[in-house]
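Collaborator request log, item 7. Partner lab (contact: R.S.) asked for a structural prediction of Transcriptional regulator to inform their binding assays.
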Amino acid sequence: MPIASSATTSSRLLSLLSLLQVRRDWPGVLLADRLGVSERTVRRDVDRLRELGYPVQAVKGPDGGYRLEAGSQMPPLLFDDEQTVALAVALRIAVGTGAGIEEAAARALATVRQVLPSRLRQRVDALEISAAGHGTEPQIDTGLLLTLSAAVRAREELRFDYRSPGRHEDAELHRPRRVQPYHLVVRAGRWYVVGWDPDRDDWRTYRADRMTPRVPTGPRFVPREVPGGDVAAFLSARFKGSESADVWPCRGEVVLDLPAAKVAPFAGDGVVEALDTTRTRLTTGAWSWAALAAALARFDTEIEVIGPPELRAAFAELSDRAGRAARSE
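Returned to partner:
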């Protein structure tokens, strides 16, 4: 019987490890069929993986089989080409999360890059990713994120102190807040806890960097669904000042004396429609009528208000305020 070369054995071990990583349980006969070897060879290869530090457990049952468990140590990992590139991308954009892991992510990326084959190293080095707009955002302690995430996962009520902007409260006298945390999310470089406030009987959103959890946590709670069932849409709606749908509470329609090409880059989530080469219809919204009028005034051009009347009234009030400001000394 011919003896397999060491290169063939190593390649087969890598294939076996790759299979074990993508599926929880593998019957031995199925592994043998996928690898094109006998079940006896699979058993020997599993023993070799165990010697290398991979905790491969035997699975009992009619078919028998194997399972890759979590171990006490971190053995070498195996990634295919696309997984490797995805890992590099994730590490490079980690700086934009505000999670305080920038240095660790940079070291991890350097470690991954060092062992990459040249074809993948060139792809990874070609990635030019910059996190824009988050340089002044507050960095959050990784330990705090883990504490908050653990409470979300365990469905345990959080007791915490909260630092509100411009308020200086004595922590010894201030009663801690309570929230039933459902989601820990990041938006524009800031982390938020979305949860149910049992004292206010309503949903609330808290800046995670302003929270100081108290020990111990509160009792477990029965889960309920975030309004609408989509936490991203819910959070977006709250930032727009809406209590329900992910829409601006104040929406208006105007015609601007500008070509659509000059309006579109600054229209945000508004709807832009070119009326001709010099005029554009814009339908957009804001959290208040005054804010919407001020935002539209930034286009620095003639504005025709189509509706509603509230927007026209807001422009009148804005004009009066501007006039008073111009006359002030």
